[in-house]
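Task 17 of the worksheet. Students: predict the tertiary structure of the chain below and write it out as structure tokens. Keep your answer in the requested format; marks are given for formatting as well as content.
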Amino acid sequence: MARFLTPQERRILDLIGDGLTNRELGERMGLAEKTVKNYVSTLLVKLGMRRRTEVAALAARLDERRRLTSTVDGNGDPATTPTQR
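Model answer:
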């Protein structure tokens, strides 16, 4: 779903999921708070959402999916490192 986001938008999405405010996002990324607000507005439009909390919920689901796919291999078995085999 979030594949059509720019890398900067994706980072904003992830940080919103971490619970950061626009001001904190700006400080973390070296952006003006107004620029962050513009990114958030663009995210809402691209994702078809109305509220920032919806974006945060999506970020949490995507993060959970990433964690699950990093711990399970393609056969549904726990992923192993080469040293574990």
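Marker's comment: The radius of gyration is 16 Å. Residues 52-71 form the longest helix (20 residues).
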